[in-house]
Amino acid sequence: MSSTKFISISSQKGGVGKTTVNILAASIFHFLGKESVAVIDCDYPQHSLEGLRHKELAHLQANPDKAAEFHALGQASYPIIACEVKEALSVAKEMENQYDLVFIDTPGTINVPGLLELWKQLDYVFMPLEADVLSVEATIPFAAALENFAKGQPGSRLKEYYAFWNKHIKSEKQAFYQRTEELFTEQGIPFLQSRLEHSVNYKKEAMRSTMFPLSKEFMRLGISNLIQEMAHIIFASEVPDSAKISPVTATASTNC
Ligand SMILES: Nc1ncnc2c1ncn2[C@@H]1O[C@H](COP(=O)(O)OP(=O)(O)O)[C@@H](O)[C@H]1O
Ligand SMILES: [Mg+2]
Question: Does residue 159 lie in a domain region?
């Protein structure tokens, strides 16, 4: 049995936070959870994750203080492999048993050659959505496609997919949140309890670092709870190192 878990934060709606949460999850599991992590960026042609890594590396090269800070971490960053969706399955298969966790960032559309086969390689999919009708309307058919074309299909390892709220604003639209969760329950789509708060901090580069741990102040935005909840699902009865993830372990400043 494979010791690698393949995860994607994915949906067919742009701008809901797929790439953001893939980075957050990969970085937190790697730097704070001490899992061995790799990332496949097949959001072709943007490859925003790979682009981010290049930007961070260039920043380190130009700033010796920042480079020294990185070396002081004593921990290498995780690999980010960019490819097209149709190549991602073979990239993923090569990573089998090499890493604890592989995060796969996919495009915001399902009409891409190779995507259905890639889905069958995923153990879990987490679907971010925002409190708007378009986001909800895009998530239901996406979940239906995962159900019909991946989960339970021959050779598929997809165990479950979960919706979760991103950009959550506590003071707004509570009835909308509740109605949507009821609708999803009727449709058999599970919802995570954790919600990621809407925050202007997401504009800061430190929030999407692939080379530094997330600082403590940012872990408070619902991120810590979300990652813990994901860890319990992903590792089920296993006792993951990530169960030890706690906001207090994060220290480094990450203004890269
Ligand atoms: N919880 C949040 N609060 C505020 N802005 C967010 C949040 N999550 C993501 N964003 C912002 O939303 C935008 C789209 O996010 P991104 O991850 O690129 O979406 P996708 O990959 O789904 O297209 C980015 O500018 C990102 O910084
Ligand atoms: Mg994206």
Answer: yes
Any idea what the CATH number is for the domain that residue 131 is in?
3.40.50.300
Flag whether 179 is in a domain. yes
Please give the distance, rounded to the nearest whole angstrom, from the Cα atom of residue 68 to the centre of ligand 2. Answer: 30
Count of domains for the chain: 1
- Domain span at 93: 5-249
* Best of 20, 49, 105 for a ligand 1 pocket test (most atoms within 8 Å of beta carbon): 20
Residues in contact with ligand 1 by the CB-under-6-Å rule are: 14-20, 108, 166-167, 196, 198-199, 202
Averaged pLDDT for residues 214-229: 90
Please say if the pLDDT value at position 248 is more than 70: no
Spell out the alpha helix ranges (H) of the chain.
18-27, 48-62, 64-73, 85-95, 115-119, 133-149, 174-186, 216-219, 223-235
Q: Which atom of ligand 1 is nearest to the CA of 22?
A: 17
What per-residue string of b and e applies to 49-85 under the rule 16 or more CB within 10 Å gives b? bbebbeebbebbeeeeebeebbeeeeeebbebbbbbb
Residue nearest to atom 5 of ligand 1 (CA): 202
With respect to residue 55, please indicate whether it lies within any of the assigned structural domains: yes
Q: Which ligand 1 atom sits closest to the C-alpha of 11? A: 22
Confidence of residue 255 (pLDDT cuts 50, 70, 90): very low
255: in domain: no
pLDDT at position 245 over 80: no
Q: How confident is the model at residue 237 (pLDDT cuts 50, 70, 90)?
A: low
